[in-house]
Design brief:
Shape: globular
Radius of gyration: 17 Å
Number of helices: 8
CATH superfamily: Spore Coat Polysaccharide Biosynthesis Protein SpsA, Chain A
Oligomer: single chain
Order of helices and strands: HEHEEHEHEHEHEHH
CATH topology: Spore Coat Polysaccharide Biosynthesis Protein SpsA, Chain A
Helix content: 25-40%
Number of domains: 1
Structural class: alpha/beta
Strand content: 5-15%
Strand order of the largest sheet: 3-2-1-4-6-5-7
CATH class: Alpha Beta
Number of strands: 7
């Protein structure tokens, strides 16, 4: 079942793009997202470069600007809140650094029609050879623990290219405080699993340009923060061995 641009509009999908120092890529990413979705929200996290200027004449993009650098969690959440206020029924998040291809948006929309009410995650790990080794092994490590705490299998828990059903945010809570960084994207999966929301994985390309700016993801520090969050949730549930069994035994929808 293929969807065209009109189908995406009918589905009331919003695209949220967090941006911090993305002057080299944000214009292209936002413009290409607009080809597939009429509601594209860029949230600038107090960039120090010309990220904001790159969007001056891109008609149709909603630009929100943080007054201080709040980190990815608070920045993504601000965009999600704006999308919900505009009546979005589904929300796609993708990074502003060009690592994600906006032309994949229709594939997420199509999967969300087939798998109603589920989170759709773009999985990069089938292209392991294209991913920097430190990132690849950090992701695999995080997958195991987050899947255990969520009680469901996960292919790429660290991918920021996702589609969320709007109803998810009325039923689950995750830390979106300033400084939360990448923890939000892991915690929301755990809380989703605990509240009956399943995840579907679709393959996407792993794009790592040698000329791109350094990743904001810090493998050691950010994985440590995620691990501490997961450990706390597991300990509060007596290690949740049932979740470990389900994360290993269940077959993931693809």
């Amino acid at each position: 079942m293929a969807l065209n641009a009109n189908d995406v509009q009918t589905e009331k999908i919003a695209v949220v793009i967090p941006a911090y120092n993305e002057e080299n890529s944000i214009r292209k990413v936002a413009s290409e997202a607009l080809r597939h979705c009429p509601l594209v929200i860029v949230v600038d996290d107090c960039s120090r470069d010309k990220t904001v200027n790159q969007l001056d004449d891109v008609d149709g993009v909603t630009l929100l600007r943080n007054k201080a650098n709040l980190g990815k969690a608070a920045t993504v959440w601000r965009g999600i809140e704006h999308a919900l206020a505009k009546g979005a029924e589904k929300i796609i998040t993708l990074d502003g650094d060009g690592q994600h291809l906006p032309d994949d948006i229709p594939r997420f929309a199509e999967a969300s029609v087939k798998y109603r009410g589920r989170i759709i995650i773009g999985s990069r790990l089938q292209h392991a050879g294209d991913i920097p080794k430190t990132r690849y092994y950090a992701n695999r490590f995080a997958n195991f623990w987050i899947a255990w705490a969520a009680g469901m299998p996960l292919n790429d828990s660290q991918s920021g290219f996702r589609l969320y059903p709007a109803e998810l945010f009325s039923r689950v809570n995750a830390d979106t405080c300033p400084g939360g960084g990448f923890v939000f994207e892991s915690e929301i999966l755990i809380e989703a699993g605990r509240n009956g929301f399943n995840v579907v994985s679709i393959p996407i390309n792993a794009i790592y340009d040698n000329n791109a700016r350094p990743s904001h993801f810090r493998p050691v520090i950010d994985i440590a923060k995620i691990t501490l969050m997961v450990a706390g949730k597991l300990l509060r549930r007596g290690l949740y061995l049932g979740g470990l069994y389900r994360s290993l035994a269940q077959k993931m929808d693809r």
